[in-house]
User: What shape does this take?
Amino acid sequence: MTEPRQPWVLETRNLRRCYGEHVVVEGLNLTVGKGDIYGFLGPNGAGKTTTMRMILGLIARDAGEVLVFGSADPIKARARIGGIVEGPRFYPYLSGRENLRIFAAYSGGCEEQRLDELLELVRLRERCLDRVSTYSLGMRQRLGIAQALLNAPDLLLLDEPSNGLDPKGIREMRELILRLRDENGLTVFVSSHVLSELDRLCNRIGILQDGRKVAEGPTAELLRDGEDLESAFLRITAQVEGAQIK
Amino acid sequence: MSDRSSFSLLCSAEFRKLRGRGLLPAVLLFGAAHGIAAGLGIRALELLGGKALDASGVESSRDLLDFTVAGEVALQLAAAPIHGFAMLLLFAILWAEDFSLGTMAMIVSRPVARWRVFAAKFTVGSCCAAASLLMALLTALVLGTALFGLNGDLSALESIPLVGWMAALPSLPMRLIHLLSGVLAGTLVLLPALGITALLGNLSRSPVLTLFSSLLILLADFFAHGILSIWSNSQLRGAELAEMVQPWTLWGSGRALFKIHGPWAESWTIEAASVQTAELVNDPSLWSQLGQPLLGTLIWTLLFTSLGLLLFRSRDVS
Assistant: This one.
């Protein structure tokens, strides 16, 4: 198995999180290399969102470490990460541009020109003065990406970015992610249930089941002859379930 | 790299939210409404009083009021519960709306320490309280100038509650300084309420629940103060203890603190002109009139705000 280049952009070490008695994430070690589009897969309740929340510092870890470019300092880490977990949320009574200004203030501020560039990138320039309450779901997702890019991050964390999007919106999102990787050199960590999309996007995959990593590696190496990602995912998770029953 | 956002940027973000919500203009207009109500109210009372004098046949040629009286009445109005309720509403939205909208997750995932976000919210809440009171004062002073003029014979106010202190203070600049100290005192009185909403906003994460639970706490304190007051005036056991505790309630310390720009300030000014500062500091009335209310107000503010900060820093955000 070919390992990606070190140092890792993102590395988790023995990450653990419980809700009461229920262990949601246990001993999780992930590694994401520079320039990767890393697909983070798992059945519902596997712990994907919890993991992403821990990486972004939204929730506390019970144990383990999150290293971003080798640093465990959460503020330093978040300065290099842009992310959306469980859908972007905005102030519906403000315009898209004003929302970006507000979130920019929490990242050390941002030039108006930078806002223009980001709005252009996500194709919202013409609607940027409209209230967010008038935006479609796809437009909000794109504004969410613009928000995540405010601090010019090196790593983009996206939780279900194509949730609720129509086929055109899904394609636009895919093209945007690829453009960000190819033109801006971003590393992308993305979770999704739309496996066909991840199949087209990701060069590296990690699979989580019951809070534990059950597979990780380059996409091509996880797939068997002629197998697509969906079949590989079902095979791997079924193997783990089978092993657990035995 | 450390925390990237300057504090002024964080405060500007909070102001932008309140402005976008329409709360900032609403608060200023509400403050102005108190100034207008004060000016027009005392003008109406003056006219009614004039008619009563005319009817009694007593000639009254003295101009009894000036614009500063309108300013003082506006401050007294703004210290009343209606304005307090409006500020509580603003504080509840300030603390809890980011949770109810889900935007808090977007905020805390940015490179900024949570305590700084908390501090920015607290600062903006305090500034809004001060701005509203200042707006009430300024509106009343402007309207008062138009209605009553710049000079009046305030000696007749001596026996009137709340504004009586103005009679003993002939210097206009001093009266204006005391009115400004009223804005400061009024803002300080609102700080425990800001602390309560900080705690309950982080606990409930709902603006509506924050508003009503904060109201409940303030009402409970008001009743506790009332009961302690009755108890301390009775012959019952523990009356002395009740008398000691009563000024330390939120209501007790706040009410006493707001008075500092009035009666206490009057005695302070007169004494300050004639005695050394050291003697003033040794004055037992300084503790009871300023020290204890100020300390009480700050202790309550610190208690609620610290608990709110503890929750804000440690709780998961989803």
Notes: Chain B touches chain A at residues 1-6, 9-10, 12-13, 16-17, 20-21, 101-103, 105-113, 117, 314, 316-318 (CB under 8 Å).
